[in-house]
């Protein structure tokens, strides 16, 4: 059992305890049967209200935190060339790790053949929504109204505006310095709010997890066990092998220390199934526990929460193989290549909120002429996989952030190896 210096249970330990208790309580409710007062007062009452308030409080912090933190971060980079370099490295690493993730998923799906012999239901239906085109995604990067962008929580537009504002601050002499001082203070206040929220996280996490497991029967999972465990296996493999090699090889970071410090964002990513909602905690952890300077973290983490979805890409890779096998459609080598490219791009277009990865899967399937209604086949286990893949998504963001920071001399090894704030 982990305690802090005053002998109390550490916060991370309490969050893990909240998750475990939520899991057991949820499964118990599911076993008893979610009906009557259990449904009305417990699942749709207490757990729903507690979980929703916690989620809302997390989301509440995202826009102000990203904006203020990124303005400070850009201003600290003091030269535009540096900003460009950090941007190119970050994008390059995000795309490369996602392409590795889909490739691993496709290899695994080809070897294991999770969809071979799968009984197709004749009334399988799935309403696919249209994914935005690539040109729309590019045009959408640029806000016409920053207030609107913030009101809509449009992360990429907020990043662009905050970046421009930060650059203008550094070029504005004395007035710029005064405004920057205000933003730095504001940043400290918002970070304090994040810490408040972490204090109630164990309870929030309990409510979120208990509700999911109370409602999620395992019957739907049985025919999909091979698919489920294959996605799970590749997710774990990618997190342990790809990220560890990246951290060790490119940043000289000990992966064990990294994963120990990442426990809070991993637990929250899992509980909320939303990279966006987890963002405040990821940012706090990456800066204060992993030692990434704000100038790099404030850019890489919000960008990653929006465009870097390795876990999602893994699900899409395995699901594509699964659906092709279930329908008895043979994919050619060029199709595999198309899946890697489209799933990597789809992950950019996937918003960091629950379930969107499945919608973007339609784009991948269309690209290789697979039936989009095949998505319905994997729907039954998607909520649980969403939780795990979101945990992988946020871990990927933090890994790349560490690597970029190390390459720019912006990683504090002292903070990273410090034991005191591990909890
Ligand atoms: N829930 C995922 C995330 O927020 C996205 C997805 O795969 O649906 O990162």
């Amino acid at each position: 059992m982990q305690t802090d210096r005053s002998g109390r249970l550490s916060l991370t330990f309490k969050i893990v305890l909240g998750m475990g208790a939520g899991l057991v309580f949820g499964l118990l409710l599911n076993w008893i049967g979610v009906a009557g007062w259990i449904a009305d007062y417990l699942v749709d009452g207490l757990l729903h209200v507690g979980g929703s308030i916690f989620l809302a409080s997390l989301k509440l912090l995202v826009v102000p935190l990203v904006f203020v933190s990124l303005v400070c971060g850009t201003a600290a980079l003091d030269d535009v060339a540096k900003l460009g370099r950090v941007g190119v490295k970050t994008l390059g690493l995000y795309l490369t790790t996602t392409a590795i993730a889909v490739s691993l998923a496709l290899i695994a799906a080809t070897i294991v053949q999770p969809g071979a012999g799968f009984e197709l239901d004749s009334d399988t239906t799935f309403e696919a929504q249209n994914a935005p085109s690539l040109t729309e995604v590019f045009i959408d990067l640029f806000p016409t109204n920053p207030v609107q962008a913030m009101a809509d929580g449009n992360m990429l537009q907020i990043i662009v505006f905050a970046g421009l504002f930060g650059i203008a601050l550094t070029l504005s002499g004395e007035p710029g310095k005064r405004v920057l001082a205000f933003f730095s203070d504001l940043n400290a206040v918002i970070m304090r709010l994040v810490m408040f929220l972490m204090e109630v996280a164990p309870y929030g996490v309990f409510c979120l997890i208990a509700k999911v497991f109370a409602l999620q029967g395992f019957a739907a999972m049985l025919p999909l066990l091979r698919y489920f465990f294959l996605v799970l296996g590749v997710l774990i493999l990618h997190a342990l092998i790809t990220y560890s090699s990246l951290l060790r090889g490119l940043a000289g970071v000990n992966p064990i220390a990294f994963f120990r410090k990442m426990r809070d964002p991993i637990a929250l990513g899992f509980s909320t199934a939303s990279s966006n909602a987890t963002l405040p905690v990821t940012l706090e952890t990456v800066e204060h526990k992993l030692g990434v300077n704000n100038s790099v973290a404030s850019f890489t983490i919000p960008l990653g929460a929006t465009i870097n979805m390795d876990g999602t890409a893994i699900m899409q890779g395995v699901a594509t193989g699964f659906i092709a096998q279930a329908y008895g459609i043979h994919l050619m080598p060029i199709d595999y290549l198309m899946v890697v490219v489209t799933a990597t791009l789809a992950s950019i277009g996937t918003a960091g909120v629950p379930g969107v990865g499945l919608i973007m899967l339609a784009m991948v399937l269309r690209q290789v002429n697979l039936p989009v209604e095949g998505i319905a086949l994997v729907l039954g286990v998607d909520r649980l996989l969403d939780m795990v893949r979101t945990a992988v998504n946020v871990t990927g963001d933090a890994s790349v952030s560490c690597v970029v920071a190390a390459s720019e001399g912006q990683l504090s090894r002292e903070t990273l190896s410090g034991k005191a704030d591990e909890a």
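The chain has a mean pLDDT of 88. The chain has 18 helices and no strands.
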